[in-house]
Write a structure and sequence with these properties.
- Pfam families: MS_channel_1st, MS_channel_2nd.
- Its main location: membrane.
- It is a single chain.
- By secondary structure, the chain is an alpha+beta fold.
- Helices cover 55% and strands 17% of the residues.
- It folds into three domains: 99 residues, Helix Hairpins (Orthogonal Bundle), CATH 1.10.287; 48 residues, SH3 type barrels (Roll), CATH 2.30.30; 83 residues, Alpha-Beta Plaits (2-Layer Sandwich).
- A hairpin with a 3-residue loop joins strand 2 and strand 3.
C-alpha cells in the first residue's frame, strides 16, 4: 500500500516538474509568440489585400461617360459586387489555409479531402451546381438586373434579388416568386429597350375626321412637352377600324422602358378633355324605338273615341 502511494506521488511529482519545465521554457514561448505573430500578420495582410483588390475592382468597373467599354450602370454595379465577393472569399480561404499551416496542420490531407468532398458534392448536387453556373451567366451577360420588369417561366414581376442560386421576382399584386436559376428556361425583359404606347380613340360617324385629327395632333404636341416618359414625337396613324357606331383612330408614342401603361392612361385623359372642349362627341350605345302598326291603330281608336 505504501509502495503504491509512493509511486503515485513520484508520478505526480514528475508530471509537475515536466509541466513547470515546459511552461518556463523560454524557447517554447518564443515559438508560440512567433506563431501568433505570423497568424496576426496573415490576418492583417489578408484584410489589406482585400481592401486593395476591392478598390482596384471598383476602379476597373467605374462607370465613365465616353469609355470605349461603355456598359450600363446597373450591369457595372452587379458585376462589381460579384467580383468583390469572389475575390474576398478566395483571399480569406487562402488565409485560413496559411493559419492552419502555422498551427502545424498538414495541408496535403486537407486539400485531398477538399477535392474528394468537392467531387462528391459535384455528383450529388448537380442541380445546385447548375443553379450557380446559370446564375453566374445571368449576371455576367446582363440578361436582367434588380428593378427590371421581366417574365420568367410565364410569371411576370419586378426583379427583387439575383443570386448565384436563386432569382426572386415580385408581381404587381404582391406575390413573390422564387426561381432556382437552373430552372429558368425563358426570360422576357421589358426594361431594356423603349416601349411603345398604343392608344385607340373612337369618335362618332357624324364628326369631321379632319377636324378630329387636328385636335388630336395638337394634344400630342402638348403631351410630348408635358410627359417626361415620352422620348419621341407621338404619331397619329389615322383611322384604324370602323365599328358599328364609331370610327377608331390609332395613336402611338415611344416611351421610356416599361412606362407605356402610365403614358396610355395620361394620353387618353388628355385627348378626352380636348375633344370634349371642342364639342367632339364620343360614341356610346343608343336605342331608337320605332312605333309599329299596333301603336298607330291604338292612336286612331283613341282619336275616334
Amino acid at each position: 500500500m505504501n509502495e503504491e502511494i509512493a509511486k503515485q506521488g513520484s508520478w505526480l511529482e514528475s508530471v509537475y516538474e515536466k509541466t513547470v519545465a515546459y511552461v518556463t521554457d523560454p524557447e517554447m514561448w518564443v515559438r508560440i509568440g512567433l506563431i501568433l505573430l505570423k497568424i496576426l500578420l496573415i490576418v492583417v495582410v489578408s484584410r489589406i489585400v482585400v481592401s486593395i483588390v476591392n478598390a482596384a475592382v471598383n476602379k476597373v468597373f467605374q462607370h465613365r461617360q465616353g469609355s470605349k467599354l461603355q456598359m450600363e450602370q446597373r450591369r457595372v454595379d452587379t458585376l462589381r459586387v460579384l467580383v468583390n465577393n469572389v475575390v474576398r472569399y478566395g483571399i480569406y480561404f487562402l488565409a485560413i489555409l496559411l493559419v492552419l499551416q502555422q498551427l502545424g496542420v498538414d495541408l496535403r490531407p486537407v486539400l485531398v479531402s477538399a477535392g474528394v468532398l468537392g467531387l462528391a458534392v459535384g455528383f450529388g448536387a448537380q442541380s445546385l451546381v447548375r443553379d450557380v453556373i446559370t446564375g453566374f451567366f445571368i449576371i455576367f451577360e446582363d440578361q436582367f438586373a434588380v428593378g427590371d420588369v421581366v417574365t420568367i417561366n410565364n410569371m411576370t414581376g419586378t426583379v427583387q434579388e439575383i443570386g448565384l442560386r436563386i432569382t426572386r421576382i415580385r408581381s404587381w399584386t404582391g406575390e413573390v416568386h422564387i426561381f432556382p436559376n437552373g430552372t429558368i428556361n425563358q426570360v422576357t425583359n421589358f426594361s431594356l429597350q423603349n416601349t411603345l404606347s398604343v392608344v385607340d380613340v373612337s369618335v362618332a360617324y357624324e364628326e369631321d375626321l379632319n377636324r378630329v385629327e387636328e385636335i388630336i395632333k395638337g394634344t400630342l404636341k402638348k403631351a410630348q412637352e408635358e410627359l417626361e416618359d415620352i422620348v419621341a414625337e407621338p404619331q397619329f396613324l389615322g383611322v384604324h377600324a370602323l365599328g358599328p357606331s364609331e370610327v377608331t383612330m390609332r395613336i402611338t408614342a415611344e416611351c421610356k422602358p416599361n412606362t407605356h401603361h402610365g403614358v396610355n392612361r395620361k394620353l387618353r385623359a388628355m385627348i378626352r378633355q380636348d375633344l370634349s372642349k371642342q364639342g367632339i362627341e364620343i360614341p356610346y350605345p343608343r336605342v331608337v324605338t320605332m312605333p309599329g302598326r299596333g301603336f298607330e291603330q291604338g292612336q286612331q281608336k283613341q282619336s275616334q273615341s
